[in-house]
């Protein structure tokens, strides 16, 4: 009996917490987290970390259809990046960020997508 009361109390507490958090998030809106890596932080990384970071961003592009990006857009971005390696793209992103100090507080990921759309002008998400 004691165990059942403990489980019931736990379930009630969990349900109340989830309900409260849900109502708070609806009242305040959804908060967008700070970027994992800002432009400034990206510039402060070593070359090897910048190239690894860019590989992750490119992998993100390739799984775009999982998040409703059209296969045509992803294919066009892949075609646009064809022949470039991660070191070259990381250097391009570094230059892009360095040339825009007013945006250094923004996410490096967002600046990467800005760079992509500049490199591949015919590719724009719908």
> Which percent band covers the strand fraction?
under 5%
* Proportion of helical residues: 55-70%
Sketch the topology as an H/E string, one letter per element: HHHHHH
Shape, principal axes of CA atoms? globular
How many helices? The count is 6
Residue runs with pLDDT of under 50 for 5 or more positions: 4-26
Structural class, by secondary structure, is mainly alpha
Q: What is the average of the pLDDT values?
A: 79
Kindly report how far apart the N and C termini lie: 58 Å
Oligomerization state: single chain
Number of strands: 0
Biggest β-sheet strands, sense, barrel: none
Q: Radius of gyration over alpha carbons? A: 21 Å
What number of domains? 2
Blueprint (SSEs and pairs):
Blueprint: H1 2-28, H2 39-44, H3 47-62, H4 71-81, H5 86-98, H6 108-119
Helix pairs in contact: 3-5, 5-6
Structure in a nutshell:
The protein contains six helices and no strands. By secondary structure, it is mainly alpha-helical.
């Amino acid at each position: 009996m004691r165990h059942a009361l403990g489980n019931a109390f736990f379930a009630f507490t969990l349900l109340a917490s989830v309900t409260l958090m849900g109502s708070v998030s609806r009242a305040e809106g959804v908060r967008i987290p700070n970027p994992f890596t800002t432009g400034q932080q990206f510039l402060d990384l070593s070359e090897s970390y910048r190239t690894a970071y860019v590989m992750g961003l490119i992998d993100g592009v390739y799984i775009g259809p999982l998040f409703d990006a059209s296969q045509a857009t992803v294919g066009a971005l892949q075609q646009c990046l064809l022949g470039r390696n991660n070191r070259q793209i990381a250097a391009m992103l570094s230059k892009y960020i360095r040339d825009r100090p007013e945006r250094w507080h923004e996410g490096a990921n967002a600046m990467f997508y800005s760079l992509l759309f500049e490199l591949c002008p015919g590719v724009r998400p719908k």
